[in-house]
Give the backbone structure.
Amino acid sequence: MTVLLKEMHHAPVATFMVWYRVGSRNELPGHTGVSHWVEHMMFKGTPQFPGEVMERMISREGGYWNAFTWLDYTAYYETMPSNRIDLALRMEADRMSNTIMAAAEVESERTVILSERAMYENQPRFLLDEELTAAAFRVHPYHHEVIGDTVDLKTMSRDTLYNHYRRHYAPANAIAVVVGDFVTADMLARIEELFGATPAGEATPPVQREEPAQSGERRVIVNGPGDTAYLTVAYHVPGAAHPDYPALSLLNAAFAGGSSLGMFAGGGSNRSSRLYKALVSTELAAGAYGGLTPTIDPFLYSISAVVRAGRTLAEVEAALEAELTRLAAEPITEAELAKALKRARAQFIMAGESISGQAQLIGAAEATTGDYHWFDTVLQRLDTVTLDDIERVRGLYLQRRNRIVGWYEPDGSHGGANGSDEEE
């Protein structure tokens, strides 16, 4: 088991996390959504710590806990007073091996997850993202959503869930992260005591279904509930460990306004960005933003817009296309790069100000890139990005043949407009 410890003594608090190197990218057809479903079942308890007992014990000690499933990993965490964090270690060591997954609770949770899936299907952004991602990935398992396909959620058995748990929830496939008010030598000894006797198991095998290069623009149109239209234009880009990732991050930060470090820092848009001025200031869109998510394998850089009432998807897409053409003719300037870098630095620092934030940054870096130093060095690497680097990655990746264009056309029926994550 990989163990990452960071002492921070400014408050008597500690966060303990266990990251498992398994997410939706490791799922096979017929079993989509199994990682997320297993995450739910991990809260049902063990013989030593029944589910309702775990909840009460954490709350009684003034702590909180949760979990999340993503494309590349599944993670569990507890944040507690530092003199009570041993409870979190004992619970995570126990449920790594002894989660029960009773058949009745599996069936009960099936209903919960199908309801969750149905809730997402009332959200236009989810519907558009699902269709666009499925069009983007025809080979790689990033093809399907983290929550899984409805048909699989209806048919998966308890044995499928339990076998997934037994195969992937083992020290060889786990990263333990502790950040906060503790003594490193004592914490390491305690982790060895609690987890050392657990059979190491085997690491999750690598995903070998590499997505082939796209040979032409793909387009999807989704019709669904709501009154608002959405546009997304997505480009295939490398994963977080690739040398081009920092330049792509700053390209998006300068063009769209976000820091582009995804879960490693804040994102969003900025009123001074080219994208905002082209789409929002002109009253074509109610909002516009870019997003670049750190992933293990190549994923997508997305530019999205919320179409303003009275405007059309065609108008917004034409304006975006014109702004992308201008970006090629008038590349990002030194002043734009400096502003983008300053904003990215501020957002990244704010994301790591809390003890739990530090734990998530360190764990996500290790789980995504295989090197927690990615977190320590990302700002230095951003500092080395030049205007030539930004123009090179723009020309290389922001090509028409490398993109997928998605339209969401509302049918006027009732429905929500905001996406959701996969957190408990």
Remarks:
- Residues 263-267, 415-424 have pLDDT under 50 and may be disordered.
